[in-house]
Amino acid sequence: MKRWLLVALALAGCGSQTVDRPAEAKGAVRLQRVGTFDAPVYVTAPPGDRSRLFVVEKGGTVRVVRDGRKLGTPFLDLRGQVTTGSEQGLLSLAFAPDYAKSGLFYVDYTDTDGNTRVVEYKRRSADVADPGSARVVLTQAQPESNHNGGLLLFGPDKRLYIGLGDGGGGGDQHGAHGNGQSLGTLLGKILRIDPRPSGGKPYGIPSDNPFVRRSGARPEIYSYGLRNPWRFSFDRRTGDLSIGDVGQNEIEEIDFVRRGQGRGANFGWRVYEGNARYTPRERAPGAVKPVITERHSAGNCSITGGVVIRDPALRAWRGRYVFGDFCRGVIQTAILSPGRARNLTDRSLRVPQLSSFGEDARGRVYAVSLDGPVYRFVQ
């Protein structure tokens, strides 16, 4: 993210959009508390498992909520292997598409050297992982303690997508022109890999990745020009990609592309912050403009990207993208399409220290507070 963990742990207003603020009627969407956790940053569930919700705690543990009850024993405990300062920690979890058969899952965390690790594990049982099954898939050196990105997601193509920030600090000052626009580094990118070993290497590179054949470019790169894509998502019905990219000093942004259109997309950082030019006399070829911008002058500080709601029980919000900001905490919804957002709405719901959104195997949607509570949207 950016400063949000500095604000919370030591760690929206709009640009040109028109924001509705409706009175919520009887039968409107509300927040139902699932439980309270230790600095939760993400929730997810294995494909097809309608009984369990997995909650990722920043300090290094993954907790299981089974049939509505939080289990006492962690699913995974990495507390001795994780650095938790600033924006570091255990940041996300992704279950393999064939998890029911393979038992494989992946975590993204900051190790004790301050670097990003993506590690594969295998379950021991439905409620407990095998800590001895660890296999390092990918390691990325982090020059700063912030902008780790940290989200892992299997996309609709069953490939593993990995979000990485620009290396941290401020203004993307690493290298001659920063990391966001450089295809020679994994920083400031969304990566796309096959996490299974391939050709004697810990992971494979899909042959249809956009920069596989470009000299000097890292073949893992799927999208670039990102500052800190803390949370992104694929629409579970359409496969469209939405990215919450954390801003610098003035503007937060949501990016949106149709399914497959993120392939090789440049989202503009550090040349642009939101729609505004940030670095003079530099170029971002073909930069994709954000569909939503949120200004710090309206109380925002760090965008928390969300999901498109497909839960059939949430009739009032179905098909809307739900998101918010860590500092402002107001739940917002919008209808996204290429180049624009419609019906951008500030809801009456608020989650202080809004750290993440997530979905379970049924498509039910959750909001996470770094302060402890995890909520499910219900109607």
Helix-strand layout with pairing:
Elements lengths: L3 H6 L20 E7 L3 E5 L7 E6 L3 E6 L2 E2 L5 E2 L12 E6 L3 H4 L1 E7 L5 E8 L5 E12 L11 E3 L5 E5 L24 E5 L27 E4 L6 E4 L6 E5 L5 E7 L14 E2 L2 E2 L14 E4 L7 E6 L12 E5 L4 E8 L2 E11 L3 E6 L5 E5 L3 E6 L1
Antiparallel strand pairs: 1-27, 2-3, 3-4, 4-5, 4-6, 7-8, 8-9, 9-10, 11-12, 12-13, 13-14, 15-16, 16-17, 17-20, 18-19, 21-22, 22-23, 23-24, 25-26, 26-27
Describe this structure in words.
The model is unreliable at 2-16 (pLDDT under 50). It contains 2 helices and 27 strands. The protein has helices at 4-9, 99-102, and strands at residues 30-36, 40-44, 52-57, 61-66, 69-70, 76-77, 90-95, 104-110, 116-123, 129-140, 152-154, 160-164, 189-193, 221-224, 231-234, 241-245, 251-257, 272-273, 276-277, 292-295, 303-308, 321-325, 330-337, 340-350, 354-359, 365-369, 373-378. 3% of the residues lie in helices and 39% in strands.
In the CATH hierarchy, the third-tier topology is known as Neuraminidase
What's the shape?
A: globular
Distance between the termini: 30 Å
| The CATH fourth-level homologous superfamily | TolB, C-terminal domain
Question: What is the count of structural domains?
Answer: 1
CATH C-level: Mainly Beta
Give the fraction of residues assigned to helices. Answer: under 10%
Q: Assign the CATH architecture.
A: 6 Propeller
**Secondary-structure-derived class:** mainly beta
Unreliable sequence segments: 2-16
Query: How many individual helices?
Result: 2
Fraction of residues in β-strands: 35-45%
